[in-house]
Specification:
Layout: H1 3-6, E1 8-9, H2 20-30, E2 34-38, E3 44-49, H3 67-73, H4 76-86, H5 90-93, H6 107-117, E4 121-126, E5 129-135, H7 136-152, H8 157-170, E6 179-184, E7 187-194, H9 197-208, E8 215-223, E9 230-232, E10 241-242
Parallel strand pairs: 7-8
Antiparallel strand pairs: 1-5, 2-3, 4-5, 6-7, 8-9, 8-10
Length: 243
């Protein structure tokens, strides 16, 4: 999936010369915690978020002066903090260095950028103009829609088995040669031998993640690989786990 598949089109934005009060009112009205700042030509020039209004002199939360820091770093950081805490225009409080993505950016890269820069949203820019915004909420919604689609999908028993076996072969931890998989009316049965108890849960999760699986029956026996001693056997009274 790519940015365009999950982004919010026509993102709420604001002009750099708008007032801080206007920005707060717009964010509250549209129930967003941040929005892009766009100039008259439609170019992205910054981002303004709730975090930009945390340190304000009006609420007594202005960043305290650290003279020792001024001695080390000069007057620049202090001047910047003052402007942000006292500024009445969006241009004075916004973050001008904006991390953005294109509409063709894969979601894996979107998530990587969010994690790397500790941000919750990314503007989507094509040809220099903002076309949308992708946020953590958008990613959650996309995941929910995918999970819901998976839950309602129907796949043949043979197709389910084939996908489980294929995924097991792709995983280095999965003992695909010692575990047999059978499927009947969407119910998966796992039989055979594993050599680490942690593999039991991982195999269940793997099977449950395949479209069309209704439940999973665990009939696996765990064996100590060096001695061959049986460590655990299936519980005949245990029910399969329902999705």
């Amino acid at each position: 999936m790519k940015s365009r598949d999950v982004m919010t089109h026509g993102a709420v934005s604001i002009a750099p010369d708008a007032t801080v009060l206007d920005a707060i009112g717009r964010m509250v009205a549209h129930q967003v915690s941040g929005m892009p700042v766009v100039d008259a030509a439609g170019r992205l020039v910054g981002m303004v978020t709730e975090g930009d209004f945390v340190r304000r002199f009006e609420t007594g939360t202005e960043q305290p002066r650290r003279r020792w820091l001024e001695l080390l770093a000069g007057s620049g950081p202090g001047a910047d903090a003052y402007a942000r805490a006292h500024g009445h225009r969006v241009r004075d409080v916004m973050t001008p260095e904006v991390i953005s993505v294109g509409s063709d950016t894969p979601l894996g890269e979107v998530v990587r950028l969010m994690e790397e820069h500790a941000i919750k949203r990314l503007p989507v820019v094509d040809d220099g103009r903002i076309v949308g915004i992708v946020s953590r909420a958008d990613l959650m919604l996309a995941l929910a829609q995918r999970l819901d689609a998976d839950r309602h999908s129907r796949t043949s028993d043979e197709g389910i088995r084939g996908r489980i076996v294929s995924e097991m072969k792709r995983q280095s931890w999965a003992p695909s040669h010692s575990v047999q998989v059978s499927v009947r009316e969407g119910a998966v049965r796992l039989q055979g031998t594993i050599f680490d108890e942690r593999t039991r849960r991982a195999l269940r999760v793997l099977a449950e993640g395949v479209d069309g699986v209704k439940d999973v029956e665990d009939l696996l026996t765990c064996v100590e690989p060096m001695s061959g001693a049986i460590l655990s056997t299936p519980d005949p009274g245990a029910a399969g786990s329902t999705r």
